Amino acid sequence: MNAYKKIFLVVLGMLCATACGDKQAEKESVSLDAYLKDTSTGIKMGGIKVIEINTPKGKFKVWTKRIGNNPRIKLLLLNGGPGATHEYFECMESFLPQEGIEFIYYDQLGTGNSDNPNDPTFWDLGRYVEEVEQVRQALDLDQSNFYLLGHSWGGILASQYALKYQQHLKGLIISNMMMSAIDYDKYADEVLAKQMDPVVLAKIREIEKNKDFENPQYMELLMPNFYAKHILRLDPDKWPEPVNRSFSKINQSLYVTMQGPSEFGLSGKLEKWDIKKELPKLAVPTLSIGARYDTMDPEHMKWIASQIKNGTYLYCPNGSHMSMYDDQDIYMKGLIKFLKDTDAADQNRK
Hints:
AB_hydrolase_fold; AB_hydrolase_1; 2 domains; alpha/beta; disordered N terminus; globular; Rossmann fold; 8 strands; Proline iminopeptidase-family hydrolase; hydrolase; AB_hydrolase_sf
């Protein structure tokens, strides 16, 4: 009788453990029905929300679009350029929905589907930080759910936003962007330039010296010798359509004002940007993403994670600046893991 009693207790314990495990899994996951449910009121617009923002020169509208619904993981995407559009992030649709991760496209003022005031005084880092904060408020994002991913120029914007408003963030992702324009210039000059054919480099330098950036030879030289090696490691005629579509719409006024016309380093408003000494102020969980062939030094990207109080580093060994495409498996798995691990840690604290 005692033997049967022991067996019964063991089986009962296993059933309880399974039930508890199922409840925990249910707590951690988002059902397909919940993820696909459109919780907006009024006329449904496929997750699109146009947000009115205040600026020193009046009100303008910026475009956002939500994919999915997850009350604990909402990822706002800041694209690069400066001046490109959200469209090159469309690759996220092949990875994040199946993981139940909500993400939000957003065209910054002057880009894509948002208003373009055609006024260079708007192209200012501080003003863009305040724009992101207004977008956050309009989308009801807060510390319980708000993840911010900034790629390239978006990484500058995301990190600068975090330094001012990290109390609203649940997690931060700095993708393919060093925390110093000065170090970026140095890496471009001392590492990337020296990897180029000296004859080709001399021709590029001559064009830049003469400020002849409209010369078609400039892009003819850069595309195979720089872009296809350090921006996106594919033959240019095989670049993904979302990338080409986004880059074809780049706001040149915004790009040149902030970045400068040269592809080798910064010469615009961001020329002296450097927040390396401020990184220890960041306490929000942060993922830094670097890639072997990137225009950004992967060792610097690794260093970023060591300076932030709760930093993690993701290395893409086959990737370049657009490593969400040319090292896609590692990039996406690493991003998803960071989002879920951060959420799980937050849940365990409650």
